[in-house]
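I'm curious: can you give me some protein's one-letter sequence along with its backbone structure tokens because I've never seen that pairing?
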Amino acid sequence: MDYMFWMQKLSIWDQASTLETQQDTCLHLPKFQEFLKQMFETLKDMDSNTIIGKFPTIGQLLAKTCWNPFILAHDESQKILIWCLCCLVNKEPQNSAELKLNSGTQGLLAHVLSTSRFDIKEAGVFTQHLGYTPADYYPGLLKNMVLSLVSELKDNHLNGFNTQKRMIPEQVRSLSQVCIPLITLPDFEPLVEALLTCHGHEPQEILCREFFDAVTEALLLKKISLPTSAVLCLWLRHLPSLEKAMLHLFEKLFSDERNVLRRIKCFMKDSLLPEAACHPAVFRIIDEIFRSVLLETDGASEVLATIQVFTWCFVEALEKENKQLKFAFRTYFPYASPSLVMVLLQYPKDTPQALWLQPLKHISDLLREIVEEQSHGSYGGPFENWFLFIHFGGWADIAAEQLVMSEAEPPEALLWLLAFNYSPCDGSQQRAQTMMEVKAVLSRLVKLFRSPVLSVSEVQAAAGESRDGVPRLPTCRQLIRHLLLNFLLWAPGGRLIAQEVITLMAHTDAITHEIIGFLDQTINRWDHLSVEAPESRKLARELLIALRGQV
């Protein structure tokens, strides 16, 4: 390989900066490139300790090469030099000498990749002869070098080598390490993407953890932009990255004081979580995190809304990605009743309102059979089925609306569905008591529904406390509040006194926020289902604006 010859040449080139030295460097560059190729072929099959033992001055040779602007002025030289340096990195350094060598090697790699550090004055003669200014030349050189590395990662071979061997994992790992400080440079985004999507056949992860952490931070801070496929690879290969993305989403949601559904949807789509969740493994992890947050926050309304928005966006993304779904829905909900999942999924967007009662009854019957009759033990208990139901929580809102607007006897199936939705862990006896109270309130509200003129006292009496004097449970009170709000929005006489009734109803900040959430969700549901209700919609918007002005 003429090792000593090139060692001497590099020393001469390093010590002199005359025009003759520069010309000599350029004259010998093709042969030196061949030398580097041969060097790499020799090094790639050795471990770091063997390399140092056989070539004790290899570090000096490569360091001199790294600091020669004329050698680095060619992207092919840069690429081969990078792979040679990667061979020197010790995967598991055992002592201070090996740690020092790793540190020095990674510093050289960073220098080579960051071509903006070149001494432009020294390379000025070279670029002038090419007809380029340094400002034009160096960015182009960096781009070519990055694209060349991307090509190597994708094709698993080095141009000009004709080798069929795969890249050595240590080389890819070292490249991921040296990219860490350069991740946010726009020209390096293709290389970051190529590293994330480069899959080897090794049993252990070949990219370093610090690289994953740096990419995650850069993504969350919007310092880089990567395609969804690359982000999916990041989350599949490094679970903490997905957990940080979820935590970042919740921080944004809980820190936003005016957290309306439209903003939640914007945050959700911006997070790329729904698109990535089209992969069942990612969906299951996200769903488990939602479950944990829901339990930790005791069913906070913000979390319930977020789960529903996530599900809407996820289903949208799934349909957009592939009309013929790659995965059956039971893949995403493996422990749920397939029949229940499919009927919940068929949200009545294109179904006339007159036909909504049938799927509501079907949902209720399926849930009741699973939860109370326990004929399908493999589908989990009440909480598991409630957790599935709230993903498609708009059904409960539709049921409440249907009950208020119907003049017929309230269907037991819908009463059961609402009782289950608001308090899923109640026993059958407690749920039956809730259904009786709700039925009594509904019968009084239905009698008032067609009245053109109503008094506040009449409406308050209709929705008042239980007639036997026993205070209602909080969840039952919330259910009846929501029925009353639906009544105020839809009943002709109710709309006239809605502002006054709600002022009396919202006697705490918690209830005020609850009503705001109800109105916001109702308006969004009407928009989604294209519900024609101009008077009710106008009133809901006015009430929402007024209440938001109070908090």
User: Anything to note?
Assistant: The chain has two domains: 1-221, 333-548.
